[in-house]
Amino acid sequence: MRKFSEAHKEECKTVSLDIPRVQRSMKKFPTGSQYEGTWDILGMSGYGVYKFPNDVVYEGEFDDGMFHGQGDLIYPSGAILRGTWKKGRLIERKLIFAEGLEYSETDWKYCRMPDRRFTIEYDNGLNPAGESYLTAEQPPRAIPPGYYDTGDGFYDPKTKAVYKAEDLSAIIRSPSIREQKWIIENCRTSPDLPLGPRKDLYEEWLEPQEMMPKPPPPASTSKAAEIEAQMSRDQDHEIIDEWTSLLWRKSSSRWLPRPIIKFETSL
Predict the structure, then answer these.
(1) CA angle 79, 180, 147 (to 5 degrees)
(2) Nearest-CA neighbor of 154 among 187, 176, 109?
(3) By CB neighbour count within 10 A (0-12 exposed, 13-18 middle, 19+ buried), where does 119 fall?
(4) Are 57 and 76 in contact (CB under 8 A)?
(5) In angstroms, rounded to a whole number, what is the distance separating the alpha carbons of residues 213 and 210?
(6) Exposed e or buried b per residue across 178-211, where buried means at least 16 C-beta atoms within 10 angstroms of its C-beta
(7) At a CB cut-off of 8 Å and minimum separation 6, what does 53 contact?
(8) Distance of alpha carbon 99 from alpha carbon 76, whole angstroms
């Protein structure tokens, strides 16, 4: 074997198997998807744009017909899922909203209590009362009567489906019962309904609790009796003072006679 290897040393050298890639015209698939980019003999490879039937677009690198390398999933709403792919699997990701805000999976504070500002309000500051931003998108788009704006489309409570904003005959999705309730309670609608204050959007504050002194230890029987007698005497004196102030009033330049009131207290 060694002699054979030495005799055929030149012939056994490794050869690069780089498969040439060529640019082709757009390819449409029976599923309704389409691809435009580079190909090799194994399929989609290199760089290209793949569009799904629901208008979600992948733009990035391919290998052997799969997402492989750096690529973005671009949604119709404008949101972008930027990630690193390996043989069709997403191994690293970053979500970027249409207005440029990056989502954080560990410390997400955007539009959450107690700070509910949109990105544009972070950049430009808050508007005065009555001119607040209603949506992150400016200016807010018009809503057809009877529909609700869900961000990715318009929800019709009659058909319980979300339609494309630019085509109300095209259904995007059918939200769950839980989401349907949330849409009706939180999303903008047409005609606008008076909302008034939303207590659930305000942070609840608790008044400072005053620390009361601890009560004294219970007194002995004789001591308790003495305290009770003293309280009774104090109450009698308070009654006398009250009646005195009421009866000693000036009337027709004369003073009313002071009544004689006797109280007997047991000491």
Answers:
(1) 75
(2) 187
(3) middle
(4) no
(5) 9
(6) eebeebeeebbbeeeeeeeeeeeeeeeeeeeeee
(7) 31, 32, 33
(8) 13
Instruction: Count CB neighbours of 7 within 10 A.
Output: 10
pLDDT of residue 12: 53
Instruction: State the Cα–Cα distance between residues 48 and 52, nearest whole angstrom.
Output: 13
Structure tokens at 90: 């997403």
Q: Which of the residues in the chain have pLDDT under 70?
A: 1-19, 109-114, 195-267
Q: Rounded distance, CA 116 to CA 135, Å?
A: 11
In the chain, the amino acid numbered 209 is Q
Residue 48 near residue 62 (C-beta atoms within 8 A): yes
**Dist CA 156 CA 40 (whole Å):** 46
Residue 131 token pair: 């001119």
Contact 105, 94 (CB under 8 A): no
d(Cα 33, Cα 55) in Å, to the nearest integer? Answer: 9
Q: What is the spatial distance between Cα 127 and Cα 138, in angstroms, rounded to a whole number?
A: 13
CA distances from 40 to 7, 25, 30, 35 (A): 35, 13, 20, 14
Tokens 């104090």 map to which residue?
Answer: 234
